[in-house]
């Protein structure tokens, strides 16, 4: 994982990787906090 992360860091910089990572964490946290709303379809 480290060689891939290092290449991405060298190519795009830390800010872009941090924004992408925090976005993934935010979306997954929202999905885990509201499982009934996202996955339950009563119809």
Q: What do you see in this structure?
A:
The protein starts with a helix and ends with a helix. Helix content is about 85%, strand content about 0%. With about 45 residues, it is mainly alpha-helical. The chain is elongated. It has helices at about 1-10, 15-35, 35-40.
Helix and strand topology:
Elements: H1 2-12, H2 14-33, H3 35-39
Short description:
This protein has helices at residues 2-12, 14-33, 35-39. It has 43 residues and is an all-alpha fold.
Gap from first CA to last CA: 43 Å
Mean pLDDT: 85
Largest sheet: none
Quaternary structure state of the chains depicted: single chain
What's the domain count?
A: 1
The total of helices stands at 3
Report Rg.
16 Å
Catalogue the unreliable spans. none
Secondary structure tally: strands: 0
Q: Work out the strand percent.
A: under 5%
Q: Estimate the helix proportion, in percent.
A: over 70%
Please write the string of helix (H) and strand (E) elements: HHH
The gross shape turns out to be elongated
The helix/strand class is mainly alpha
């Amino acid at each position: 994982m480290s060689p891939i992360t290092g290449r991405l860091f060298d190519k795009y910089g830390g800010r872009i990787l941090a924004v992408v990572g925090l976005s993934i964490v935010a979306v997954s946290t929202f999905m885990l906090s509201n499982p009934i709303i996202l996955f339950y379809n009563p119809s």
